[in-house]
Amino acid sequence: MIEDPPLLQIRRNWKRPDSAMIQRFVDVPTEHLADAMDGRGALDYLVKPIDQSRASFVGSALTCQCSPGDNLAIVASLAQLTRGDVIVAATDAHSTLAVVGRRVTGMARNRGAVAIVTDGLARDTPGIRQNGVPVFCRGVTPNSATASGPGVVGQPIVIGGVAVESGDIVVGDADGVVIVPAARIDEVLVRLGAVRSREADLAQKLAAGLGVPRRVTELLDSPRVRYVD
Q1: 122: which strand partners?
Q2: Would you say 117 and 136 are in contact if contact means Cβ atoms under 8 Å apart?
Q3: Number of Cβ atoms within 10 Å of the Cβ of 119
Q4: Of 23, 37, 94, 169, which has fewest CB within 10 angstroms of its CB?
Q5: 98-100: strand order across its sheet
Q6: Which of 136, 183, 140, 182 has its CA nearest to residue 159?
């Protein structure tokens, strides 16, 4: 038998990346970030933007863990927000009730949030678009969550198959959301330089008429391929 938990457990202090560090991830495609982390780091493919025209963002994670069908942790996280934060709310992929709508996004905007990301559902998409805060979620329903708890704010979570801690860098665009762990920021920036160089080189080759990658051409001419006709 589980003892009744507190309605909220809140961690109030963690290290956020400074604004100069966050700026280095502005306009970086999520695909490049994933490549810089060995093809990993992206949330589940179902977590997509409500508004494709307002999907790009970068900020510091403020994590929440919601009980199924409940959004008390998200509402409570508003009090912990600082300008530049991204609310990252795990719901165990609950798909019956919406945990985010126009009211929550409006308050998050007023508090300086740059985005809200959840593996749950949202509602009132016209109101969300009007508020101007990018919202990423797994889907939309008119059904509304309660705000009764229990919930957790500021502690490690798992969302969309990815572990996230408050203070990680969160980057979103039309393709989805990528998490850059705080402990890997410097490493990822170094590797990102190499990814950009490869992408620039490939772009030049494509413009020059590349049709088949050289490594594939070499493989096709090697003993490792057997032709049957």
Answers
A1: 100, 140
A2: yes
A3: 27
A4: 23
A5: 98-100, 121-122, 139-140
A6: 136
- pTM for this one? 0.91
CA gap 33, 133 in Å, rounded: 22
Within a domain: 98: yes
Measured between alpha carbons, how far is 146 from 70 in angstroms, rounded to an integer? 5
Q: What CA–CA distance (Å, rounded) separates 60 from 88?
A: 9
Per the structure, the complete domain to which residue 135 belongs is given by: 8-181
Q: Is residue 205 part of a domain?
A: no
**Tally of domains within the chain:** 1
**Residue 66 β-bridge partners:** 151
Q: Which string of b and e fits 165-190 if b means at least 16 CB within 10 Å? A: bbbbbbbbbeebbbbbbbebbeebee
pLDDT in tens, 63-90: 999 998 899 999 999 999 999 999 999 9
